[in-house]
């Protein structure tokens, strides 16, 4: 199926996959983005444990439903992140009630700085679009074969952009330059490794969805601009 036709088709499971994508994105940014963890002498951002799952789902979205539909999900995630940031700032800034002594702890958990918010939104937006673009183009190049090369290859580029934007914007000046570079490279490597480890899961999800949706989408006549308009599925 041509990618532009896929953007106009109604799918049975697309909405569920999109909800899972946005939910994991929000939770991984809300819970783990700002914690610096260390296991076995390896330093990394705690969000790395779950955030890569959103990239796996992003790969599934592009592979099964095409770039145009994946683009809608990226924008949905982008605006969800913006709203989450707005809600966090608003709630944290509200004066606490008399006798409630949880304000400091609440601020520590939900009071992300503007730098972390800017970094999260920017890195997600750029990284996801690069990931989807590379995967869609590689699918055309490989004729739909060798899915693992597309999922891992797109993650190499997408996560490189994500990590290269997020950590310097969020923490340069707060962490040492060495820490920023170490965490940035370590997280990138761990995200790519996660993608490789989860390849069987990706294959299973893609195969299951393609069989039930009855499609094989190739993005041959698709405008790859992030700002192109597409009709609803």
Explain what you see.
By secondary structure, this protein is mainly alpha-helical. The chain has one domain (about 5-215): Arp2/3 complex 21 kDa subunit ARPC3 (Orthogonal Bundle), CATH 1.10.1760. It is about 70% helix and about 5% strand. It has nine helices and two strands. Strands 1-2 form a two-stranded antiparallel ribbon. β1 and β2 form a beta hairpin. α2 (about 15-30) packs parallel to α4 (about 65-95) and α3 (about 50-65) runs parallel beside α9. The two termini are about 15 Å apart. The mean pLDDT is about 90.
Q: What can be said about the biggest beta sheet?
A: 2 strands, antiparallel
Low-confidence stretches: none
The CATH architecture classification is: Orthogonal Bundle
Query: Would you state the CATH class?
Result: Mainly Alpha
Radius of gyration: 19 Å
Q: How would you spell out the order of helices and strands?
A: HHEEHHHHHHH
Helical amount among residues, as a percent range? 55-70%
The count of β-strands is: 2
CATH fold category name: Arp2/3 complex 21 kDa subunit ARPC3
Q: What number of domains? A: 1
Q: Provide a count of the helices.
A: 9
Oligomer state of the chains in this structure: single chain
User: What's the overall geometry?
Assistant: globular
Beta-strand content bin: under 5%
Distance between the termini: 14 Å
Enumerate the strands of the largest sheet in spatial order, edge to edge or round the barrel: 1-2
Mean pLDDT metric: 88
Structural class: mainly alpha
């Amino acid at each position: 199926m041509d990618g532009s036709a896929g953007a106009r088709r109604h799918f049975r499971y697309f909405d569920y996959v999109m909800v899972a994508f946005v939910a994991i994105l929000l939770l991984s940014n809300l819970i783990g983005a700002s914690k610096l963890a260390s296991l076995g002498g390896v330093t990394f951002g705690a969000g790395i444990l779950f955030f890569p799952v959103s990239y796996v789902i992003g790969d599934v979205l592009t592979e099964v439903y095409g770039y145009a539909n994946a683009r809608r999900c990226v924008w949905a995630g982008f605006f969800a992140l913006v709203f989450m940031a707005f809600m966090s700032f608003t709630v944290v800034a509200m004066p606490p009630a008399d006798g409630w002594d949880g304000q400091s702890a609440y601020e520590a958990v939900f009071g992300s700085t503007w730098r972390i918010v800017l970094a999260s939104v920017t890195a997600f937006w750029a990284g996801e679009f690069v990931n989807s673009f590379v995967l869609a183009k590689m699918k055309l190049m490989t004729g739909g074969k060798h899915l693992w090369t597309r999922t891992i290859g797109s993650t190499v580029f997408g996560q490189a952009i994500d990590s290269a934007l997020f950590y310097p914007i969020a923490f340069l000046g707060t962490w040492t330059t060495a820490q920023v570079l170490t965490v940035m490279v370590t997280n990138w490597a761990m995200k790519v490794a996660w993608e490789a480890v989860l390849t069987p899961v990706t294959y299973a999800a893609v195969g299951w969805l393609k069989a039930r949706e009855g499609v094989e989408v190739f993005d041959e006549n698709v405008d790859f601009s992030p700002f192109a308009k597409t009709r609803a599925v």
